[in-house]
Structures are given as structure tokens and as C-alpha cells.
């Protein structure tokens, strides 16, 4: 992480929007996770239901329970925290839904 | 990091990753000359920081809040450039001068880029409606 990011941002006339997740090695991994976070930020809208204010995607109409290991959930929680920004909280399961949507979208049509 | 560089006999060691996203559409969903802008970005990053690599088109989306949250889908080219914070600070004026060009000349709502793990944007207001 850049130590002087705010100073660099100021000099460029840019706004720091948020952080992207640690992606490990490889350009493709970096591009994929950056895309996932960008998609999250663009798609999530403030909810209108009983938990108004928590952003969600209006196209997410199915809410199945998805079993997973503790380790996977911890990793999702970490990614969700990194994808969150001020006034735009991303939950671990929203991160899971986004990654699942992208993975399934990559599969060929039946 | 510099220890690795000296062991490998490398003449350059850069530990800060700058990533630019070159879109293929403007904020009105109209195509732009993406190839031209990729070339311009590579030239700018080559001159300023000594090199850069453009990767094939990906899929992207950006929410234009100035247009009521309209979602703009495009197929950006991702350009990676290894540099250093010192070089970014030193060349900030010239880098900014380049980044503003696609924002205005290619009619973008914002120019987005990543420095290490921070995502930054330079925003551009909607042009005044004529008439």
C-alpha cells in the first residue's frame, strides 16, 4: 500500500474511493478482483426493506443458504471489509454473491 | 526488494503498481477510439516511468452518479506500470495532465486508476447542456 497515497491523490486532483482486496501474484488475479470490487461498488444500492441503508443488488431475488467452511467465511469477511467504503458497507455474503455471480457467468450456457 | 535487485543484477527496482483502466465507451455509451487511448497511455507511462504493459480487454462497469446512478458497462483495457512513490510524486503534474485528457477528450465521467491497493478517481462534471 502506498504510504503517501493522500499526498499523491491531492497532487493528481483525484479522490481515494477505497481499497481493493489483496490479490496475490499475477496480473489476471489482480484484474479479476479489481473488477469484482468495481462491480460491487457500481451495483449495490441502498436497501428499502427492514434493514434500509444496507446496499444490495435489486436483481438478487433468490436468498438461498450457502454452506461454507469457517476459513472461507473469514476470507469473505476480509474481502468485504476491504471492499467497503464510507457509507457503503459490503457484507461477507454480498461479496460471496458477487463472486458466485461472476464465476457462474463464466460457465458456458446449457 | 532492493536486495533482490542487486542479487539479480537488475538496474531498476520499482515496488509501486499503477494500474490504469482505458474504457471503450464514453459516458453516453458511445464508442471511443480505445486503441488510440491505449497507445497514448503507454507512451505517457513509458516516458514518465520507464515502461508499462497493456492487458487484453476485460469487462467493467462504472456507476455515473451525475446521471442518476446510470450503470455504464464497457470493455476496458487494463494497463499496469511498475514505478515508485517517489516517481509518482515527482511526475504528478505530468501524469495528471495525461489523465485529464481521456476524461475530457473522450468524454468520461471519471478516470479511474489504482495505486497499489488504493482505487482513485478523477471526476468530470457533465458538460453544460446547449440551447
For the biggest β-sheet of chain A, the strand order reads: 2-3
Beta-strand residue percentage of chain B: 25-35%
Unreliable segments of 5+ consecutive residues of chain B: none
What is the subunit arrangement here? Answer: heterodimer
**Count of distinct strands of chain A:** 3
User: How many domains comprise the coordinates of chain A?
Assistant: 1
The tally of beta strands of chain B, per DSSP, is 7
How many domain modules of chain B? 1
What is the helix tally of chain B? 4
Distance linking N and C termini of chain A: 42 Å
**Class of secondary structure makeup of chain A:** mainly alpha
> What's the pLDDT, averaged over the residues of chain B?
83
Helix-strand pattern of chain A: HEHEEHH
Strand order of the largest sheet of chain B: 2-5-1-6-7
- Overall shape of chain B: elongated
What does this structure look like?
The complex is a heterodimer of chains A (110) and B (131). Chain A is mainly alpha-helical and 110 residues long. Chain A is built from four helices and three strands, in the order H-E-H-E-E-H-H. Chain A has one domain (19-106). In chain A, a hairpin with an 8-residue loop joins strand 2 and strand 3. Chain B has helices spanning 2-8, 34-49, 85-90, 92-105, and strands spanning 16-22, 53-55, 60-64, 70-74, 77-83, 110-115, 118-123. In chain B, a hairpin with a 2-residue loop joins strand 6 (110-115) and strand 7 (118-123). Chain B is elongated. The mean pLDDT of chain B is 83. The chains are: A mainly alpha (110), B alpha+beta (131). Chains A and B meet through helix 1, strand 1 and helix 2 of A and strand 1, strand 3, helix 3, helix 4 and strand 6 of B.
